[in-house]
Amino acid sequence: MTTRKAVFYTLAFFLFVLIVPQLCAQNESMTPKEAAAARQKLVDYSKQFIGKPYVSGGIGPNSFDCSGLIFTVSRESIGKQLPRTTKAIYNFCQEIDAKEREAGDLVFFKTTSSGEVSHVGLYIGSSQFIHAVSDGPNTGVIVSSLKENYWKSHYYCTRRYLPASNSEKLADTNPNSPAADKTSTKSSGNASFVSTKKIVRSDNDSFLKSLVVDSSISLNWSFFTPEYFRLNGRGFDFLVHARYAGKDIQPGFGTIFRYDAGTGNFQMPLIFSLSLNEFFRFYAGPVISFGKATQPGDPDIDIENSFFPGILGFTFSTPGIKVGKTLLSLVQDIHYTVFNDTDGSALSFGKSITTGLVFATGIRVTLPLKNVL
């Protein structure tokens, strides 16, 4: 095996060992009974912190901020690791209808002028939730109600990361809870009878709402050629990608349309990806090329793209800024594309790295399909 292929397969192997076991573990489903037990442990564990003071950045056990409370309670009670910040927890979880809300789900609020999600609490049933509050008449870890005017007016949505304990659970029938399902109440003497519609959920609808589509346009660059060390323009690319955000580790697929100014040809990588969340993505796949490729810095030396192994890369994006139903973010990518000599033999290690290792900086637009369905 050539040095170039050894490097590629070694990197791919380590990514496989690190990520795929986690993906498989996330696919292990809980029974409704197990989910109910986990939710109860979560709620019971959280109650011991009522009265603890609020401190920005606090993750306990003596002080908390709102996301720190959720982070610690989840990790310590049921062994589920959540992201650290409110917005990251929000993106990590799957949105549900308020009528599906159960104890153990998370309720999110918009409490600042930015209009972004800024506060999170743990729903414990009967329209109540535990959270860590920084200001107001009561601060620290407290229990509040979704019926209170302030929280009712700032409520945004409910999300979950634990399976439902009962897939046929009826709606939260409290008419004062935010976004509560429509109910009809009939009175007879001192008794009230509340009727609710049975929730009917479509698996296809749930799947589609878990898809997140994104596209990005980037300028490509590198630091070196085989002959010199300096900043080099390496063309541009346009990416179209979709991922399934219904799991902690999110599989995806996409296509990149790229002009590589360094080699002078067009490339179309077909990528298979694993995203840890909206910020980090690993990908690999074959590369289809169009036109003759030449060695960067020396157009007299012909080379060619390898179809497979083709490309291996890593992408980081900044938190998104909401623009309508989409999120706008900056994205930084580093990828390694495999090139061969024209006779199919491997390039030298130095030429392989200077030709194939490229950085890409650009803008990404993300559209969760749940925002349009």
Characterization of this structure:
- The protein is of the alpha+beta class and 373 residues long.
- It has seven helices and 21 strands.
- The protein has an eight-stranded antiparallel beta barrel.
- Strand 4 (128-133) and strand 5 (140-145) form a beta hairpin.
- The longest helix has 24 residues, at 3-26.
- Residues 17-28 and 167-203 have low confidence and may be disordered.
Profile the largest sheet.
8 strands, antiparallel, barrel
Residue windows where pLDDT falls under 50 for at least 5 positions? 17-28, 167-203
Main-sheet strand order equals 9-10-11-12-13-17-19-21
Query: What is the average per-residue confidence, as pLDDT, rounded to a whole number?
Result: 83
Q: Could you give the count of β-strands?
A: 21
Shape: elongated
Please tally the helical runs, counting DSSP H or I stretches of 4 or more residues. 7
User: Kindly, what is the distance between the CA atoms of the first and last residues, rounded to a whole number of angstroms?
Assistant: 49 Å
Instruction: Please estimate the helix content.
Output: 10-25%
Q: Please provide the ordered H/E string of secondary-structure elements.
A: HHHHEEEEEHEEEHEEEEEEEEEEEEHE
